[in-house]
Amino acid sequence: MLIFKKEGQRALLEFLRNLTPQVLLATTALLLWIHLDFKRFDLSNWPSTVAFFSCVGVFWLAFLANLNQFVDALLDNLTVYARFARRERVRGVHRWRAVFRTLRTMFTHRRMLFADFLGTVVIANIGLLTVTISALNALRAALR
Questions:
Q1: Distance between CA 49 and CA 5 in Å, rounded?
Q2: How far apart are the two ends of the chain, measured CA to CA in Å?
Q3: Structural contact between residues 98 and 85, judged by C-beta atoms closer than 8 angstroms
Q4: Number of other residues whose CB lies within 10 A of the CB of residue 3
Q5: Is the pTM of this model over 0.85?
Q6: What would the pLDDT profile of 19-34 be if each residue is shown by its tens digit?
Q7: Could you tell me if 71 and 120 are in contact, meaning their C-beta atoms sit under 8 angstroms apart?
Q8: How many Å apart are CA 118 and CA 87, to the nearest integer?
Q9: pLDDT tens digits for 45-95?
Q10: DSSP label at 45?
């Protein structure tokens, strides 16, 4: 996936479009969290507790599904490097060393794919950070 080509642009826009429901879920979870006391066990407030954990669970499922959809477009180009990493692991190389060797090999042979991979990781992290900041700002505005 190249973010500047049609397939990559579609995946990027879909990823960004799907962040909106995640902000809503995270904000709702934070609003519910304020009224919960996790220091003691109390069954009198169980509806809010269930709603809180439901919002948190659905938020993480939505984020991971959105991220999975976004990364799928990139993974079509990474099969060779996934096999390389597996071969390194079979040879007894530590997991992180295998990852770094794979990234170094990708950087050496296909720099544009390496840049796409890094761009995808950066965009995903910016997306999570944006959702978190937006949810916290909405929470702060709701509490005023």
A1: 45
A2: 44
A3: yes
A4: 16
A5: no
A6: 888 888 988 898 888 8
A7: yes
A8: 22
A9: 788 889 999 999 999 999 888 888 877 766 666 777 778 888 888 888 887
A10: G
How far apart CA 107 and CA 115 sit, in angstroms, is 8
Say if residue 72 is exposed, middle or buried (CB neighbours under 10 Å; 0-12, 13-18, 19+): exposed
pLDDT at res. 55: 93
Length of the chain: 144
Q: Quick one: tokens of 73?
A: 């477009």
Please give the DSSP secondary-structure letter assigned to residue 5: S
CB 135 within 8 A of CB 26: yes
Residue 133 tokens read as 């900041």
* Phi, psi of 91, deg, nearest 5: -75, -5
Task: Name the amino acid, one letter, at 81.
Answer: Y
pLDDT at 93: 84
d(CA 32, CA 96): 39
pLDDT at 7 over 70: no
